[in-house]
Amino acid sequence: MSEKIASNKSIMSIFIFGALADLLFGYDTGVMGVALLFIKKQMTLSPSMQGWVVSSLLIGAMIGVAIAGILADKFGRRKIILITAVAFGIGAIGAAVAPDVSLLIISRFIMGLGVGAASVVVTIYLSEMAPTNKRGILTALNQLMVTLGILLSYIVDYSLAPFEAWRWMLGIALVPSIIVFIGICFQPETPRWLVKNGFEDKALQVLTRLVGKLKAEQELNEIKTFLDAEKINKQSTVFTPKIRLMIIVAAFIAMFPQIMGTNSIIYYAPTMLTTIGFGGSAAILANVAIGALNFLMTFVAMKLIDNVGRKPMLLCGTVGMGLGMLTLGIVFHSSHSHPSTGSGVIALIAMLVFIGSFATTWGTITRILISELLPLKFRGSIMGYVLVLNWGFNFLIGLIFPIVLNGLGASVMFFIFMGIAIIAFFFVLLLVPETKQRSLEEIEQSMRA
């Protein structure tokens, strides 16, 4: 019993500090929504420059995503998480003291390197640390921390908004970055990476800490057997037809949350609500409600993911997201020249439907499913390339949305997002496999068959 308690404590310690990096990811993603209201006024920013302030983080994230997986495969998952914490800290300090928009953009870019790296490496770290029967719920912890980070950013924004203290909004991210750095210093490397790189004794120590002495030897042998079989198989697993298909599926799974419009709401909800009838303080408070729902529905997802499964949840979530975007398109189209509080309330409800559907499904499942579908030998590097697509479309939406909002109106984009949701539904229905309650090795073996 004492061994089991110690094991559970070790697992929670590893997962809490690992997922804290995702709290920073969420905070830095969400904080700009309200901060931008004051930055654009103080620095007199055009719509295109507003897009660059938001999107500079996303350019950094694309680069961070592209290199983090390769570096994590070479140097280890844990070391790269430490580096992401440093990037978060430097970016937070730079953004807080930026005298002009140029340094603000550079600081956001540095922060983005950390955000992108965390989106790859933390997911791999947590999925490789998790026992098979708990992998879904424990890996979902990273998305819970992302949503908590977003919620905290909204609460900080709301608290500091009366003072227009956008520098404090951005700079406060330094505190959790220090906590992450210190916490991860005391956490182990993943056993799969250790075995793959010849550190079997250390891997056994980590497995003993995670699952207890009895199961540790068994899991170590499973990992070794799998890696030995991989070495014998001279054909690169990445080029087998089934795995090639799964890489394509993983790429689309990464893209769909962005091209269905998620971050148009995460980044610009206050701006949109003020254009359709809300006052400034009401829009900021509504933003907190969006963040709270995002956080709370992630708990629901954690309960469902290892019971209901990945595929049914994605299908249901896509329907809800599509309906939310359809409603937003209709409201913004009909209220374009006649904004009112009533229109704003309907728009807020539609945003809540969208975010609730996203948080319960795509928000929690996307990175878990991607890490499950990719082969161990290439997991870090390919996951990096796949998530470049995620951040690339995130960047495009962050950059062009304020321009579209100022020009054509938001309804055009919302109708496009709805159409993409329809495509996503049939893609998931036809091509996405179920992975619940299956070990990573079992999933990969089925793709080799």
TrEMBL record:
Subcellular location: Cell membrane
GO molecular function list: transmembrane transporter activity
PANTHER family associated with the record: PROTON MYO-INOSITOL COTRANSPORTER
NCBIfam families: SP
Membrane topology classification: Multi-pass membrane protein
Gene Ontology cellular-component annotations: plasma membrane
Family: Belongs to the major facilitator superfamily. Sugar transporter (TC 2.A.1.1) family.
Transmembrane helix keyword on record: yes
Ranges for domain Major facilitator superfamily (MFS) profile: 14-436
Regions that span the bilayer: 12-39, 51-73, 80-99, 105-126, 138-156, 168-186, 245-269, 275-301, 313-333, 345-370, 382-405, 411-432
Keyword Transmembrane belongs to the record: yes
Species name: Pullulanibacillus camelliae
Superkingdom to which the source organism belongs: Bacteria
Keywords assigned: Cell membrane, Membrane, Sugar transport, Transmembrane, Transmembrane helix, Transport
Gene3D superfamilies: MFS general substrate transporter like domains
Protein's name according to its UniProt entry: Putative metabolite transport protein YwtG
